[in-house]
């Protein structure tokens, strides 16, 4: 087990290094001249343009620019926003609790809907339950998030008046109002992920239910609930854990359309505003942080493999 996890940890360092190079390259392929954007009406003045380029290290060779940037990152300095002149790390830390709350709520909703539905469809394969679950899952995959969000606002907020249509209230201010403002966008995000989890859970369960040890457990006279929960479901969790880690990373990267529809000030809105304003340090910082989160979530998935599958503990 230690060798397995140790090998995975050693792979994290070069992966993050490669990601940092790709993230830095975003600045080079994005259109427009950041110095001209910052100069504004003075972009025609060569002296001002040269001063801005020197301050931003844009007049140095690309390798020098990269080592200057990555050196700051290693010391916790992701640069400063070119638009509002605030530390990028500070902006990310402001948005992180918002995105973390929304992603966690959406993931819990997805787990509560998708996993039980997938197990149900597998246990009652080729029955009405299986067809209904697959139909609902297909609808969840096919429904655009922005359309579902608008429909929920019209129905739940405008027609019924149950929940506020938009906005965000931090948990520290009023947890009831915070849940009220995030439950609809969380359901919109969790709906699509629940459909994906359902399909993968069903597929994994069908594979496991056909194994010899499951038939042996049934032949011993064990109840169907015990066979499904204790013998089948645990072994079917391995691919679901991988998918769950990736999907949670997707949620943490920011759901741009959903956050725009519900006016949630998370990572998605931060990136959109930064791209439109060509605020490259903010874009680089957010992409780097979310990429590292993906890598760490995959490492967490490997740890969960060992906990779920006892055979890996002796590897």
Alpha carbon gap, first and last residue: 5 Å
The CATH architecture name of the largest domain reads: Orthogonal Bundle
**Approximately what portion of the residues adopt beta-strand conformation?**
under 5%
User: Level of helix content?
Assistant: over 70%
In CATH, the homologous superfamily of the largest domain goes by the name: MetI-like
As for the number of domains, it is 2
Task: Supply Rg.
Answer: 24 Å
CATH topology (level 3) name of the largest domain: MetI-like fold
User: Helix and strand string, N-terminal first?
Assistant: HHHHHHHHHHHHH
The shape is globular
Quaternary class = single chain
Strand-helix topology:
Blueprint: H1 2-29, H2 34-39, H3 46-55, H4 62-74, H5 88-123, H6 128-142, H7 145-159, H8 175-209, H9 212-219, H10 224-252, H11 256-262, H12 267-276, H13 280-308
Helix pairs in contact: 1-13, 5-6, 5-8, 5-10, 5-13, 6-8, 7-8, 7-11, 8-10, 9-10, 10-13, 11-12, 12-13
């Amino acid at each position: 087990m230690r060798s397995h996890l140790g090998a995975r940890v050693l792979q994290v360092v070069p992966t993050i290094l490669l990601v940092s190079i790709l993230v830095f390259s975003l600045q080079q392929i994005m259109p427009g001249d950041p110095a001209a954007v910052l100069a504004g009406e003075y972009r025609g003045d060569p002296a001002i343009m040269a001063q801005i380029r020197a301050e931003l290290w844009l007049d140095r060779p690309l390798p020098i620019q990269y080592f200057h940037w990555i050196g700051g990152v290693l010391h916790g300095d992701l640069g400063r926003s070119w638009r509002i002149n605030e530390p990028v790390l500070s902006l990310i830390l402001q948005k992180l609790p918002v995105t973390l709350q929304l992603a966690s709520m959406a993931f819990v909703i997805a787990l509560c809907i998708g996993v039980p539905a997938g197990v149900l469809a597998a246990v009652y394969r080729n029955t009405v339950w299986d067809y209904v679950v697959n139909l609902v899952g297909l609808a969840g995959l096919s429904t655009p998030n922005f359309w579902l969000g608008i429909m929920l606002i019209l129905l739940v907020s405008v027609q019924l008046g149950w929940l506020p249509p938009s906005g965000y209230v931090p948990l520290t201010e009023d947890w009831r109002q915070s849940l009220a403002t995030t439950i609809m966008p969380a359901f919109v995000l969790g709906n699509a992920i629940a459909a994906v989890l359902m399909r993968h859970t069903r597929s994994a369960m069908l594979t496991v239910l056909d194994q010899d040890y499951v038939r042996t457990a049934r032949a011993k006279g064990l109840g169907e609930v015990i066979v499904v929960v204790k013998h089948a479901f645990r072994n079917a969790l391995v691919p679901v854990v991988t998918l769950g880690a990736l999907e949670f990373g997707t949620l943490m990267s920011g759901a741009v359309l959903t956050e725009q529809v519900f006016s949630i000030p998370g990572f998605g809105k931060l990136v959109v505003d930064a791209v439109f304003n060509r605020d490259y340090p903010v874009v680089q910082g957010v992409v780097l942080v979310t990429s590292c989160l993906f890598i760490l979530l995959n490492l967490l998935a490997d740890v969960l493999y060992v906990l779920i599958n006892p055979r890996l503990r002796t590897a």
